[in-house]
Please model this.
Amino acid sequence: MIPYDRAIAVVYDAIDVVNRQLPAARRLRKAPDTVIVGLGGALDSLGVVNFVLALEERASAVGAKVALLDEDMLLEDSPLRTVDSVSRYLAERMA
Amino acid sequence: MASSAQLHLVGDFNLDTLGRYLAHTALDGAAIDVAPPGPVQAALSAGPPAPDWIGVVWTRAEMISAAFQRALSYEQVDVDDVLAEVEAFASAVARYADRARAVFVTTWVSPPFVRGWGMLDRRPGLGVADLLARMNVALADALRSDSSVFLLDAGRWLTAAGSRGWSQKAWYAAKCPFSPGVLAEAADDIAAAIDGLTGRARRVVVLDLDEVLWGGSVGEAGPLGVRLGGHDHVGEAFVDFQRALKALTRRGVLLAIASKNDEAVALDAIDRHPEMQLRRDDFAAWRIDWRDKAANVAAVLADLNLGAESAVFIDDQAIERERVRSAVPGILVPEWPADPCLFREALGALRCFDAPTITIEDRARAGMAAAERSRRASAAASGTVDEWLQSLDVRVTVEPLDARNLDRATQLLNKTNQMNLSTRRLTAADLSAWAAAPDRLVLTFRVADRFGDSGLTGLVGLQFAGSEARLVDFLLSCRVMGRRVEETMLHVAIAHARRGGAAILTADLIATPRNGPCLEFFKRSGLSSAGATRFTWDTASPYACPAAVTVSEPT
Model:
């Protein structure tokens, strides 16, 4: 499997974690264009923290040591903006 | 179905994520009120939003005991000082519990990176781990007599969540030291406990045979040729799974079989295979033939007088699982691993058997079910129903509600669906308080016959008001329905109503989707109908006790 596919699988695992904390109508779609942080995102600040913690834990389990819980990461143009962008960010570190 | 549970979360750290797991997954639709995080004494003093709310109290040991906090910094502390602080916390929880429907209190845990004194950490009077263990035992002891308070094991949640269960990053970022994995485990356990409290624990496991209780096909391999035990890891796994099922029967869970097989061959294996842990008497009912699996599961449940909501069905074949899932609504059909080595773990992961009490009746239920099979066989061999009832030698013992039978009476009140007049659900404390009023009377009924003792299986609650006695509770376990115990309970209730000065007894049935049998009984009981669900009896006339039943009422 190429790193991007592995990375997006990790992101989807993290989505599974936060979706259990969300009402059915607000659950995140497992799709590359799903917004995580910023305008159009379904997560509040606690939801973003929980998503990032889950993502770091799962990324660590596949050998990608990343620290995503950083103020810069929570800005509009951060790698956490969408499923696709965070997957690319992770893939670079998993290669 | 949306949950109607109402939970008040009280903690000294941020419990919002736990609240989200509860509200959106574990107890979908539940009302959740999270007290502001911080020292819990104020929230405990304020109590829950209303008396019908359930409290969840989750604290860290160092926030409850200043002395324990000092011990974490290797200061010398007096164990008695620590235990006094635990006692004060337990008292606050008990006062909170007086104003709540029930309270779940989590045990205290320590982060894996706290190694305390290393090799000395279990030394009494010194070690942090030793002190924490003593705190948990002291908390459990202090709350033991409060029947509405339950300790939940946070240590298991931490273990289940793995090495990252305790997260300092989560603490720094969200003021909650636990990973989502721990909180999800906690939410699922809390939901299971609430199911138990509200009488929704499952009561029977219906099992397939081939590739579930043993490896291979008994029809092909023969009764002694199936894969079970021996020097074989898969055979060992089947033995272990059977032992786990047998252990479950000691919690009051029945076992039954629905299998496509030749009955004689399958029962031969159960009777004769030397490694079988479960024998014929361990099964309350079975259907072993070539008919539709869903129809056979339904027939087994009918034999046991249990609804689908009380049952779990385990089958190795996905197509059979799906068939039963769709044809028997309400039954729990878990996905089942293909590898027998995972069976015991899969059974343990089912959180559907939790009950708030364990009674003598629970421990004896499997034996009672075997007696019931003998009873059914005798009924089939008898000429008429009356002859069969006469041959049973049914004996009913009537006792008032007291401390000795309170747990079982509460369990019956909360689990009985079919023969239940009002289907009201109460905690032990609430039932005891209700019965203590001078204008009320709660009677319990123990039932035995020549096949065995069915234990405490009936309950009547009477409320007196002027010349009227209202039958508030009238419930009978489905295990003894149809043995004229229902009529016997009415006979006793009416006698007590008259003795208490009431000229009339009234019974108002509150209809539910499942208490149709109770309505049918009252319709044919001989009581006067006053509307579709109201029944009355003039107590000037005694209500006859069935001739086939002997009643004793110790004075």
